[in-house]
Structure formats: C-alpha cells, structure tokens
Amino acid sequence: MRVLVVEDDARIASDLKAALESAGFRVESCGDGENAWFLGDTEEYDLVVLDLGLPRLDGLTVLKRWRGNGREMPVLVLTARGAWAERVEGIDAGADDYLPKPFRMEELVARARALVRRSAGRGSALQEAGELAIDTNRMSVSLRGVPLSVTALEYRLLSYLMLHKDRIISPGELLEHLYGDEDAREANALEAVVTRLRRKLGPGVLGTRRGFGYFLEPLGPGG
Asked: Under DSSP, is residue 141 helix (H, G, I), strand (E, B) or coil?
C-alpha cells in the first residue's frame, strides 16, 4: 500500500515512516502544503496522513483542494490535542479520520490499516480469496490453513491484490503502489516477484490475464 505522510516536523515524519513501513506500507513523505497538494493531486495513494499545521499552505486548505478536485483517497488528519474545532472542520472538509497529538504509533498504524480496508470495501482484517488468506493485523499469509513465508515485497503485492480481489490489476498500477520513488519501477522486476510467489503458492492462486494484468483466483464477479 502506498502512503503519503505530510508532516513538517522531521522527527515525527521519520517516526511515522518507520512505523508504517514496519507494518507493510510503502511510504513517501513531504513537509509542506504546496508540495503535498501537488503530490496528492497528481499521484495515486492508498492513504494520506496529513498534519494540518504546515508551512506554505495549511493542511485544511490542501484537503479542501484535493476533495474539490475529486481526489478520494482516504485521509487521516493529525491535529493538536484539544483542537476540537479544527477536527470538526477537517472532517467537514473531507477527512476520513483524525488523531490528536501526541499519539501512540500503534494506534496510528491500526487506524491506517482500517482506513485502507474500508476504502476498498473490506471490513475485516482477515481477507480471503479461495484458499489464500491474509491477516493484515498480523501481516501473515496462509494457504489452505498453512502459514506461508513471504518477503515484505511479496506480502505487499498479495495484500494489494487481496484488497482489490474483484478486479484485474494492471502491472502499472501494481508498480505504482508497491514501489517507492527511490526504487526502480520496472515491469521485469514485478514479473520476477510474481514468479517467486507462484512457486510458493502453486497453481490456481495468482492468475494473469495477458494484456490486462494480475488477479487472485477465483476472480470476483466484478472482474
């Protein structure tokens, strides 16, 4: 899952990035409102963690611009403790959830997971497709009830396909959501990950429709 962290405090931003990456997210960050507005308006994110007190352009204005332009990614707003009016205004502007500072990273990660699931129409942390199961809270994968050892990248790929299991995901979309800006986003690299996963999963789990992309079997009615 691809997450944008918008926080001008470098220490907090670093802590957020570390916590979210350890939970299986792919994190990008920026520290001012102008850059945040541009990134959120031109890139595809599964979640944005947005501080409201930003330089150059405040977070509330950024959020209003995103929603005004039809950007619908889930947004978790960070606010100062006790700033209830700011929280209300943020929710009215289109925030999906808020978290007052200071906060525990464990709570932020839990809220982030829940927002990503809800945005994909998935309520439970345990997701299943055929005989494959993923527990997003435990970051575990099992096949026919047997735990499966996967790398962090393999887990992110399976998790993304699981969240969108009713449709075929193009290689371009997978590359966008699995890799950060510092990584080489190459189709050959993605195919190598898929090949490794197929060796572990066996037939009838991870499917390909030539010219369209990848999906988990059985493909839902929307596919």
From this structure: strand
CA angle 153, 188, 24 (to 5 degrees): 10
Angle at 60 between CA 58 and CA 61, to 5 degrees: 70
Determine contact, residues 69/94, Cβ cutoff 8 Å: no
Protein fold of 126-216: Arc Repressor Mutant, subunit A (1.10.10)
Q: β-pairing, 75-80 with 97-101?
A: parallel
Q: What share of the chain is helix, strand, coil (3-state, %, to 5)?
A: 40, 20, 35
Which tens digit of pLDDT belongs to each residue from 63-95? 999 999 999 999 999 987 667 787 788 889 999
pLDDT class of 207 with cuts at 50, 70, 90: very high
Quote the CA–CA distance of 45 and 143 in Å, as a whole number. 29
CATH architecture for residues 2-120: 3-Layer(aba) Sandwich (3.40)
> Which residue in this structure is represented by tokens 């957020």?
16
